[in-house]
Amino acid sequence: MAAPNIEIIVSLSKRRGFVFPSSEIYGGLGSAWDYGPLGVELCNNVKQAWWRWMVHERDDMEGIDSSIILNRTVWKYSGHEDTFSDPLVDCKECKSRFRADKLLEEGVARLQEKYQVGHISFADSPFQYIECPNCGKINWTEPRPFNLMFRTTIGAVADEDDPNALAYLRPETAQGIFINFLNVQTTMRRKIPFGIAQIGKSFRNEVTPGNFIFRTREFEQMEMEYFVRPGEDERAHQEWIDYCFDWFKRLGISPDNLRFYEQPAEELAHYAKRTVDIHYRFFPEREDEERQWDELMGIANRTDFDLKAHSKKPEDGEGKRLNPDSTEDLSYFDEATKERYYPYVIEPAAGVNRTVLAVLMDAYTEKTTDKGEKRVILKLHPELAPIKVAVLPLAKNKPEIVSLARRIKNDLQPAMRAVYDDTGGIGKLYARQDEIGTPACVTVDHQSLEDEAVTVRDRDTWEQERVKVAELPEHLRKRLGIKC
Ligand code: ATP
Q1: Can you tell me the distance from the alpha carbon of 339 to that of 447, in angstroms, rounded to the nearest whole number?
Q2: Distance 222 CA to ligand 1 centre (A)
Q3: Residue 484 pLDDT more than 60?
Q4: Which atom of ligand 1 is nearest to the CA of 223?
C-alpha cells in the first residue's frame, strides 16, 4: 500500500524532519521547501544511487558539474529565450494567475465530473466555460506566453535592464553538457556512443508551483546526454527508456505505480523526434484514473538539434552562419566510418525532488499492532534509507549497556550511517525508526553483557534475531546490501 495522498507525506515530512516549508517564520515563500536532517540524507542517497547506476556502473559515461549561470548566448541558441515559456491566463475578477494548459485540463475534468460525461467538445473557446478555481467567476484574459527563466544581472551594473549584463539561472542542466561536449570528448578520448551525466540545481519561474515538492521554482535535476551516430538514435532511445524504467523498480518503487507515457506529436518539444515520459501515480486519490499520473522523468530523442545549434559551421540556404557567435564546431569525426557528423542525443532527465516524493509515497505503509495501535512504516529501499541502523540500549541507566551500545554504533559508523538513541522506551524507539525508514534496529540488553550478542530487529517484518557483536557489521552489510 502506497501513501493515499501527498498530504500524508507532507505531514510525515514535517513531523519527522524530512522537509520543512521554507522561510516559515516569515510567512513562507510560495512553494519553496527546505530539506531537513533526514531529507538531505534521502536526497543525497537518491543522487548517489543515480550516479552509481548511471556513471560508475557503465563504461560509456563521464560526469561533469557545469555552472548555473552561463553566457546568455547559450540560452539564445538553445532556443530558451524564444520558446521556453508556458501559456498564462489571468482571472480579470480576482487577478489570480494560472497556467492555461493546466487550468484547461483541470477545468475540463471538473466539468466532466459535474455532468458525468467522458468527453466534452466545445463550440467556442473552452475558457468561456471554466470557472476560476479561486473566485468561481468566468472572466479570463487571452492566454499569452510567459518565459520561465529567472533573470539576473552580472557585475555592478547601474541599470537593472542593461542587456549586456543580463543573465539567467539555468532552467535545465542539459545545456551545460552540450557546450562541454568537445571538452569531455577530447580530454577523455571518448568515441561515440558515450554519455555525459550531470546532477544540479535548476530554476524555473513556474506559473503555478505546488503539490509539495512536485513542482517548485528551484529544484534539482539528474540529466544525462547520450551521444550516438545518426541512425542509431531510435534503438538507443528505446534502450534508455527500458533501462530507466528498471532503475525506478530497482529503487523499490512498485511497477503498479509506474507507467510509460508516449508524448503525442502536439506535446513534443520543437527539437524532439520522440519523447517517452515515465509517470508515477502521484495523485492516487483522484477519481479519474488518467489524472492520477504525472511525470517523474522524461526520455527524449533530441536529434542533432543541440550540437548543431551551438556550432559555428551550419549555414542557412543563403550561406549565412546560423550561429555567428559560436567559436567552435561541435561535430564529430568518426574514425570507424570516416565520416563527420553532428551526433544525435538521447536525454533521460529526472528530478531529484520528484524521485524523493515518489520514493516516499511508495514506501509509506501502515500496520496495526496487537494492541490495535496504528503504526507508520516507511519501507524505503535500504540504499535510500537516511539512517541504516539505530543502536538502542534497553536500559539507559545501566552504564555497561550504554557504553557497549555506543561502542557498537561507533564501530558501525564508518561503513553505514548509524545512530544511537536512548530517548524513550524501546517500543517508542522502534516506532520512531520505523516511521523514518531505518531498515534495522540493534538492541543491547542485559544478556548482551554476558553473551556478546545483540538483537537485530527488521523494520518490515518486526522479526528479531540474535547476532554476535563481532559478526554484526558483516551481518548488517549483507542484510542491507551494502557493497563496500
Ligand atoms: P513538467 O511538464 O512537469 O513541467 P517538464 O516536462 O518541463 O516537466 P523536463 O524539462 O523534462 O520537465 O525536466 C526533467 C525533469 O525535471 C522532470 O521529469 C521532473 O522530474 C523535473 N522537473 C521539471 N520541472 C520541475 C519543477 N518545477 N519542480 C520539480 N521538478 C521538476
Answers
A1: 74
A2: 11
A3: no
A4: 14
